[in-house]
Amino acid sequence: MLQFDIVIVGNSAAGLQAIRTIRRHDRTVSVALVDREPCPAYSRVLTPYFIGGKTPRENLYLVDLPFYDEMGVTTFFGKNAVSLDPERRELGLEDGMTLRFGSLLLAMGSEARPFKTGSRRISTLRHMADAEKLASLLQPAKSVTALGAGLVSVPVLSHLPRDVERHLIVASGRIFSRLLDAESALLLEEHFEASGVILHKRDDITEVLEGERLQISLASGGTLATDALVVGKGVVPNTRLAAGAGLAVKDGILVDERCRTSHPAVYAAGDAAQGKDFVTGETTVQGNWITAVEQGEVAACNMLGLQHVYEGSMKNNITEVFGLEVAAIGFCSDEAPRCVVHGSLASGRFRKVFLDERDRVIGAVVIGETNDSGLYYQMVRARLPFPGKRALQGENRYAGFMRQIA
């Protein structure tokens, strides 16, 4: 049995930020990192570029192996954590090893929602092994179908060669239904179709048959013949370890304003954690990189006894799809009390700002050039009033406004 002051389970945004934060404040505490994948941390956001042949595998890595040595972290790569006893402060690994801890951070992320398997030509995308499989599978494909219009399947289709036939099956009435409002989603749908994507909205897969090609039967009654199926039906937070240990769990692992779980020695951050939303005040699993980094830092500080408080997470997703940059910040919903729109896709610059009852900025959708998305994020965080429609006309106007209030 090995003893560490801090044990971290998970080697992505939250885990990495926790390591960096711990070492920024303390070089003496002992730290261990456990992760199921046998490699350094990498960017899942970049995997569609790798799959589409636009970047090599080595460009996916965020750090190299010497990073962990430099940070004084003992790594247990390629190992699953299978048991947790918070009272005894023991974490069990699948090889029978037990790690004792003073504090524990659960930052295991989430898993792709399962889909009926049985074909090598069907794959989700969550881990490096999935990316490698899809890169091999899609390279010779002449037709690719994606199920689910989220931040996994759409970028994969987006980075395929233009001559590949692309189908997108969406169970709901619009793409990015959990990310964008209806108007913004419709603009992107028109752009997708102009880029050659065949949309199947309010539809689903009822059967997949093997043959020379996959034969897909749709709920609408139609059929598709395709070379590969990419499944992106959302993700499920990794809560099994926490639930088995008796920690409070709903959709994710419930955490307070210090990213602490229902046990004082155990913390959670990132896609596995469910905490307060900054705008609505409700608990949610935010599932984005910035939230994971922020929660990882707050958890690390509190594990060191520094008493940091997190005001809440915010939606902050930025992606590129079919040559178009898209950012969704804060509360981007048709349920917002008021919104202000400026620009169009034709002009290459669309902005939609969402306001509360007091005309404070609570969210924004930015389509086109997204360099000013960070300004919208800061406006929501600062609970600032909307500065007027002229502010939407360019980055410099917003930057000047932010300087005035700083």
Automatic annotation (TrEMBL):
UniProt keyword Aminoacyl-tRNA synthetase present: no
Keyword line: FAD, Flavoprotein
Origin superkingdom: Bacteria
GO molecular function terms listed in the Swiss-Prot or TrEMBL record: oxidoreductase activity
FAD/NAD(P)-binding domain span: 4-296
Listed Pfam families: Pyr_redox_2
Cofactor: FAD
Gene3D superfamilies, alphabetized: 3.30.390.30, FAD/NAD(P)-binding domain
UniProt signal peptide: none
Family under the similarity heading: Belongs to the FAD-dependent oxidoreductase family.
Name assigned to this protein: NAD(P)/FAD-dependent oxidoreductase
Species classification: Bacteria, Pseudomonadati, Thermodesulfobacteriota, Desulfuromonadia, Geobacterales
